[in-house]
Amino acid sequence: MRTERFSGNGQAERRDLKVVVGAAIITDGRVLACARSAPPEVAGRWEFPGGKVEPGEGETTALVRECAEELAVRVAVGDRVGPDVPMAHGRSVLKVYLARLLHGDEPQPLEHSELRWLSAAELDTVTWLPADAPVVAALRPLLARL
Asked: Which fold has domain 17-145?
């Protein structure tokens, strides 16, 4: 993704904006939350699984890869949920997609310290990373309807 930024002299500067994708995996009216194990400053905080989109890789392809790497699951990626969330001092943006597990796969905490399935009423029982909080707010009414 390319964006323009204006320097102090009013001239536009081009720079690459990195995209980070996340999966709001929903099963039986609950969403999967993952507790970070590292780095130390965010360990124990909760997020949606996912990661960076690599050069030449599409967002949904990256999300399928990240879910396989982090959770050992196969997912079907659905619609976007929540807003684009700026991260890392404006150098990257988080985009979260709805997803569902395929073939009865069960998530494994390969890169997280803990996994939890949360209903709409349970979303506030964990401490979310700041970037994930706007997506949690967008998910709440969706989960409440399921």
From this structure: Nucleoside Triphosphate Pyrophosphohydrolase (3.90.79)
